[in-house]
Amino acid sequence: MESAAIRSLFNELSPDYDRLNRLFSLGMDVGWRKELVAAMVRQNPSKILDLACGSGDVTVLLREALPKAQVVGLDFSRGLLRRAQARGLAQLTEADGLRLPFADRSLAGVTIAFGLRNFSNRLAGLKEIARVLQPGGVFGLLEFSPPPLPWKLFWNFYLHHLMPWVAQIVARQGDSFRYLAQSIVAFPHPSALHRELSSAGLRLLFARSFSARLVQLTLAVRG
Fold it and tell me: Per the confidence metrics, is the pTM higher than 0.85?
């Protein structure tokens, strides 16, 4: 799907975004995001970009956990940014993740929670992240990951059938969640992701999985 179509989808989804996130993750996404923030806190970056920040879940947590750091949220969805602004977030930027409005080597940290899979060109996005990171700057990524069998059988049924059906009933967003399900399935296995990070100039620090290996926390550093 092209960037403009994905942006339109998230703008349309924005009123129900947080409610549906909690519903479909059974509330576990709150804990996953906290794990990402805890990993970033251990690195103690002074200026952080929360990329694809959505309604600001991770941005708020970063600001609370690192009160001395400058935390900026960025998303290409104006609807989601309005929701982030309503939560009291002021340092927000509307921009495309493939063309970040930051100078080379200007950031100490970048985070993405469940947003990389929506980039129209994932490797280009990773290279852009590497561009804006200082040497030694850290990239924290939280994303879904293909689970092992037999759990994968239920996961595929949940993504392709149950989740769009519920989304249609609850918020008339069945089509949006069919796209989101496909984006989850198409995201690479951790080993392939790690190769992409390396190709972009980012060196893997560690990776950790949660919830029956459905979710992967990855931390990488710019060399």
Answer: yes
pLDDT, tens digit (0-9, with 9 covering 90-100), for 24-50: 888 999 999 999 999 999 999 999 999
User: What sign for the dihedral angle of Cα 92, 94, 95, 97?
Assistant: positive
Report which of 82, 76, 194, 201 is spatially closest to residue 137, judged by C-alpha positions: 201
186 burial (CB, 10 Å; 0-12 / 13-18 / 19+) is exposed
List the one residue out of 49, 109, 110 whose CA is nearest residue 74.
Answer: 49
Segments of 120-189 assigned E as strands: 133-144
49 DSSP assignment: E
| Topology given in CATH for the domain delimited by 3-146+188-222 | Rossmann fold (3.40.50)
- Non-local CB neighbours of 57 within 8 Å, separated by 6+ positions: 18, 21, 29, 30, 33, 113
Q: Which residue has the tokens 């009291």?
A: 88
